[in-house]
Design a protein that fits this description.
Number of strands: 20
Mean pLDDT: 95
Oligomer: single chain
Order of helices and strands: HEEHEEHEEEEEEEEEHEEHHHEEHHEEEH
Largest sheet: 6 strands, mixed
CATH superfamily of the largest domain: DD-peptidase/beta-lactamase superfamily
Structural class: alpha/beta
Strand content: 25-35%
Number of helices: 10
CATH architecture of the largest domain: 3-Layer(aba) Sandwich
Low-confidence stretches: none
Shape: globular
CATH topology of the largest domain: Beta-lactamase
Length: 464
């Protein structure tokens, strides 16, 4: 054990980390022995390592088979193929209605089958409107402590009980045919509730320029595109968060219905008490949702799960209720209440704090539960996928270590599981705060430690 501890100490003793703080716990899950510990009781900003706590609480209290159910209602009377009323979607928070438009996928694809369902019910026209009920989640759509200058970014998109495509729309930018011509720009979906202002211009074809910048003014729907794009370059798709998830959702559904030949007139009609459930959309189970959450570190799913815990367990879809559920789960794992401060569900907030020992207790408790497999399978795999796809390749840790990354400015986290050379299962928690060196230097130290654990052996009573 002394050799292992000395090597971990050496990795953390680099002059580059002189002003940084490290919190580390390494423990055997075969016999419970703690192999290394540094600042295990101190509080650190966890960044997306917080998602380990949220995913674990969701598995414990919701169950791996939990699904979101979203009712789609017809409010009003039917006359032949026309609904004399509104289509109302009752949001339950489903975060899985998403398509990765950066790959060329149709961002409205998740809703196309909804139009088919209305047509199957014989509806060809809607005199009223498409409406959304997003009242289940009672808090503002942004997390506490989120940086205001990140709010236009996809990873800082707001959250609601009705949401589509992670609450992100896209700018499609296409260069002109000659230098100096405007870059053409359009929103995708075309009815996204944003206002686009474009000053981008075309650069010469041989300049190979892709210098587009875009932003959305905080708390507004105004999006600006500027910069230069070389003639002949492929169309660029640029993500931008939307300020109102429910409005985005209903505008997208209205667009889908129109594309499918279901005319939405949009009249404001006198309220009619007649309500019919057209269909209820069912999400994939939580076990299938967790890889979408943990492997790419998707913030909006974490925020949704926190509010869902509150709604499902406490009857109130608030962050406070969700935090209460997480606290109950962590208490059951033996985590002291002063070993963490929980602000949001994603780790994006700088109001979050967690002690390495708390993360270790969660990892150990989940490992010993019968529902461990969905969590383990959802974690990024070193050198294979998710946020670890490019790390630890060509080492014994590749394809072996399953771990959650975490990233904020001056914060890097890596916590998870790895098998040693002897097949012993080890958990590790590596939290780094307060550094000023490039992030790759911190990640290299974390990778060095995980690789060392993958090569660890108790042969002869020592590490090798």
């Amino acid at each position: 054990m002394a050799a292992l501890a000395a090597e971990v100490d050496s990795a953390l003793a680099e002059p580059a980390f002189a002003r940084a703080s490290w919190g580390v716990v390494i423990q055997s899950l075969d016999n419970g022995q703690v192999l290394y510990r540094r600042n295990g009781e101190r509080l650190f900003l966890p960044a997306s390592n917080l998602k380990l706590l949220i995913a674990s609480a969701a598995l414990v209290r919701l169950g791996a088979d939990f699904r979101y159910h979203t009712p789609v209602l017809a409010r009003g009377a039917r006359r032949a193929d026309t609904l004399i009323g509104d289509v109302v979607v009752v949001g339950r928070g489903d975060p899985t209605l998403a398509a990765d438009a950066s790959t060329g996928a149709d961002p409205l694809g998740p809703l196309r089958s909804w139009a088919d369902s209305l047509r199957a019910r014989g509806i060809r026209a809607v005199r009223g409107r498409v409406l959304g009920d997003a009242s289940l989640f009672t808090d503002p759509p942004l997390g506490p402590g989120w940086a205001w200058d990140d709010l236009d970014a996809a990873y800082s998109a707001p959250v609601g009980a009705l949401q589509l495509d992670d609450d992100v729309a896209w700018i499609e930018a296409t260069a002109g045919s000659a230098p100096g011509q405007p870059v053409s720009a359009a929103l995708l979906p075309r009815h996204a509730p944003l206002r686009l202002f474009n000053t981008a211009t075309t650069a010469p074809a041989d300049s190979n320029v892709h210098q587009l910048t875009w932003s959305r003014a905080p708390f507004s729907d105004s999006v600006t595109l500027s910069g230069r794009l070389s003639a002949g370059r492929p169309m660029a798709r640029l993500p931008v968060s939307v300020p109102d998830p429910a409005r985005y959702f209903v505008s997208a559904l209205g667009e889908v219905l129109g594309d499918a030949g279901v005319a939405v007139r949009g009249d404001t009609l006198t309220a009619d008490s007649t309500t019919d459930t057209l269909f209820t959309w069912q999400s994939p189970p939580l076990s299938a949702m967790l890889p979408l959450f943990l492997k790419p570190s998707q913030n909006q799913i974490g925020e949704t799960l926190l509010r869902t815990l509150g709604a499902q367990v406490k009857g109130v879809g608030s962050m406070d209720s969700g935090r209460a559920v997480v606290r109950e789960v962590l208490s059951g794992f033996g985590v002291p209440p002063d070993a963490y401060v929980l602000a949001d569900g994603s780790g994006l907030s700088r109001y979050n704090y967690v002690a390495p020992e708390a993360v270790a207790l969660v990892l150990e408790a989940m490992y010993r539960r019968p529902d461990f497999a969905p969590l383990f399978d959802a974690l990024p795999v070193a050198g294979v996928d998710g946020t670890l796809a490019g790390r630890l390749k060509g080492t014994r840790a590749a394809g072996n270590a399953h771990a959650k990354t975490g990233s904020l400015s001056n914060v890097r986290s890596l916590s998870g599981y790895v098998r040693s050379a002897d097949g012993e299962v080890l958990l590790f928690v590596l939290l780094a705060n307060g550094f000023t060196v490039p992030q790759r230097v911190v990640e290299a130290a974390q990778d060095q430690i995980v690789e060392r654990l993958a090569n660890f052996s108790r042969a002869g009573g020592r590490g090798r």
